[in-house]
């Protein structure tokens, strides 16, 4: 791995649990990308040539990530804020992605259309890939991009968020020890570094995870070179509780589907719709958990919910909550910042929220959950589908057939019954509407980094 290490230019990284600086990363100038992308292009010829060597290198990379787990997990918690146990789980998922894609190969296919021609579809790598990643799961989201891209035979330039560059830089140096030079390069810096990377003429695929507005800017940038884009964007997932739901039986799962990683999960539950008859019971069950959960530094072993990652995100969460309260909502739990250093916001459950309040219609991406009552299932489905987002959704009830029939009506990429946000490495992951373009995950993620190459050859007479 190479990084830009010019003296005197750096990004200072804040520990969100203390508000203090916890490290520094290089602030690369956009024009320095030309050399990085040029090296990625030159490294591509060797890397694409030998599929068996790639499999071997990527399994070795998975082992190396696991061996470096302690250092990676601690650094991740320092800069991101999540509880240490969750950082370890993220490191494990990073290694799992490498291992999964190491063993995945595209299938060459024969096509028969009745003519005496042998047509074969082979798969070729596209070229250097730009991977641009947000701050909520810096390592696992990076691996979800570079593992399939590398397995497909491409080289990768990876740019983490300036809020969380440290663990990714360490990951880059761990992988540099097992991958050929310039096959994976980590670059760090402030904007317009990402914009320049997305629009760089040497990049053939931009795989981006982040917010909807930045996703649009990335697509516009990539259009200049007609590079392929895969966009995994925001979500505003609804959980629809049916009238046969066992509230106490699902409350823990529902709570953590909303509050894991301090609510900073693209496919967290961000709105709950409960039948009017059960609404008060659902609010109470969630508020009880929000009031009693341990909030603190991710390095404290008792902590279950850490801080919000950064000051602008904290300000946004506080503003959406204040607006909802001003519009007539009531905080059944939380509703305010915690009076301590760092970026802490009390786990918040909101009731009496006007359905058109921004905390319902927009993505809050923090520890704040509105719970809304509904009259009929049709009304609940219409409300769940009624935003510009379409990432995931879930339906909760005891009659599984009925729950599945309701889930089938959700307009999103993944629907869950009685749980939320659990993914398999082997499944396609795709948002609809504003939540994304393209497909990641499983074989679909591999093919997203390949192009078909067709050879027609006359059959021997
Ligand atoms: P963001 O869009 O602000 O930033 C994402 C990345 O893009 C960062 O690395 C950032 O530095 C970079 N960037 C900023 N401006 C850019 C530009 N003009 N061109 C290219 N790159 C640019 O998002 P964020 O605040 O870091 O992350 C939170 C968002 O990510 C939420 O909306 C969340 O839902 C979304 N997200 C989506 C998924 C998914 O899989 N769908 C997963 C995780 C997070």
TrEMBL record:
Presence of the UniProt keyword Iron in the record: no
Region (Disordered): 1-29
UniProt KW keywords: Oxidoreductase
Active site residues according to the UniProt entry: 232
SUPFAM superfamilies linked: ALDH-like
Segments forming domain Aldehyde dehydrogenase: 7-446
A Pfam family assignment: Aldedh
Entries under PANTHER family matching the protein: ALDEHYDE DEHYDROGENASE-RELATED (PTHR11699)
Family, similarity comment: Belongs to the aldehyde dehydrogenase family.
Protein name per UniProt: Aldehyde dehydrogenase family protein
Organism: Streptomyces drozdowiczii
